[in-house]
UniProtKB/TrEMBL annotation:
One of its GO terms (molecular function) is ATP binding. It comes from the Bacteria. The keyword Membrane does not apply. Residues 8-258 form the ABC transporter domain. Pfam families: ABC_tran, oligo_HPY. Keywords: ATP-binding, Nucleotide-binding, Transport. This is Dipeptide ABC transporter ATP-binding protein. Residues 306-344 are annotated as: Disordered. GO terms for biological process: peptide transport; transmembrane transport. InterPro entries: AAA+_ATPase, ABC_transp_ATP-bind, ABC_transporter-like_ATP-bd, ABC_transporter-like_CS, Oligopep_ABC_C, P-loop_NTPase. Residues 306-317 have a biased composition (Basic and acidic residues). CDD domains: ABC_NikE_OppD_transporters.
Length: 344
């Protein structure tokens, strides 16, 4: 994709939440996304992975305009969403849709499937002529593997997988160019999950839609994505093609994540080199100085405390934000601090 203009570009994006002081808790600012740069090209699927609370959903919410960034830019088709006049922004927002983890919470239970889909055309008039609405609803339902008789039913009359199909149909109704999938298959059983993943791939093949696929499931990401970004405590620590990330992870955090999913672990040569991620993720209210991962990292040295590593291309060929990256398994000595990564 080098040389082509990205469809979506996050440039040093910062998104913070204000916390009011509460009982036993001081107020403050949570920098949930602390300077993230990431691109998604047309027709591409980019996976965003990381532990719970690292800021994945906040990125999703910022991209689709549910929360405002406090710094940096979201560019779509080269245009800065923060600098567009309201009318143009509204038009452009149509191109970016989101599918959430819990379709039941995101689908209005009092609306029929047909009305849930038609609502999108009410919000964006002129997209589909009113006389074609019923036919288009039928076509969309068929497109996502449902039937036209489902149009008159309500969300509670469907299974979880079917409800996710409805969410996808609703997203497709406005003919988006990018769909942000925020843990979109995480709540589904394995077999249903596979069906939805197949559907997403089919849609990409037929319609050319791009995905930013947010998930904590490295197996699903490997199955679906072309490129992968690994996030830790509000920052991206490593980005690369699927092959680069799964075969030669260079950031210790990526190595630990992969090590925790043995069936995916192509890069370790010795099973005994398992890395066990211990200790809690530090609070984003007061992240560590320097490298944010240093308090849990077996490779950490003084430099990691003093200096924040910038993403730089390493010998593996992809950008890694680490002072001491390495493709080799960690040394066999036990990590000195209990809060660090250790090996069993
Ligand atoms: N509305 C909010 N107000 C205050 N803090 C928030 C809010 N939403 C998220 N946060 C905090 O921002 C950080 C990032 O949360 P976010 O939900 O983006 O992470 P995540 O990686 O998507 O995790 P999960 O997979 O658990 O949703 C967390 O520390 C979270 O507690």
């Amino acid at each position: 994709m080098a040389g082509t203009e990205p469809l979506l570009e996050l440039s040093d994006l910062v998104t913070s939440y204000r916390l009011r002081p509460g009982i036993g808790r001081p107020g403050g600012e949570v920098r949930a996304v602390a300077g993230v740069s990431l691109t998604v090209h047309a027709g591409e699927t980019v996976g965003l992975v990381g532990e719970s609370g690292c800021g994945k959903s906040t990125i999703a919410r910022t991209i689709v305009g549910l929360v405002r960034p406090s710094g940096g830019k979201v560019l779509f088709d080269g245009r800065d969403l923060g600098a567009l006049p309201a009318k143009e922004l509204r038009r452009l927002r149509r191109d970016i849709q989101i599918v959430f983890q819990d379709p039941y919470a995101s689908l209005n239970p009092r609306m029929t499937v047909a009305n849930l889909i038609k609502e999108a055309w009410r919000i964006h008039p002129g997209l589909v002529p009113r006389e074609r609405w019923d036919d288009e609803v039928d076509a969309l339902l068929e497109r996502v593997g449902l039937r036209s008789e489902h149009a008159g039913r309500y969300p509670h009359q469907f299974s979880g997988g079917q409800r996710q199909r409805i969410s996808i149909a609703r997203a497709l109704a406005v003919r988006p160019r990018l769909i942000v999938c925020d843990e979109a298959v995480s709540a589904l059983d394995v077999s249903v999950r596979a069906q939805i993943l197949n559907l997403l791939q089919e849609l990409q093949r037929d319609l050319g839609v791009s995905y930013l696929f947010i998930s904590h499931d490295l197996g699903v990401v490997r199955h679906l994505c072309d490129r992968v970004a690994v996030m830790y405590l509000g920052k991206i620590v490593e980005t690369g093609s699927k092959e680069e990330i799964y075969r030669s992870p260079a950031h210790p955090y990526t190595q630990a994540l992969l090590s925790a999913a043995p069936s995916l672990d192509d890069w370790r040569t010795d099973e005994s080199d398992e890395i066990v991620l211990t200790g809690d993720v530090p609070s984003p209210l007061s992240p560590p100085t320097g490298c944010r991962f240093r308090t849990r990292c077996w490779r950490a040295q003084d430099r990691c405390r003093d200096e924040e590593p910038a993403p730089a291309e390493r010998d593996t060929g992809h950008p890694v934000a680490c002072h001491f990256p390495g493709a080799l398994p960690p040394p066999t000595t036990t990590a000195p601090d209990s809060g660090r990564l250790t090996k069993e």
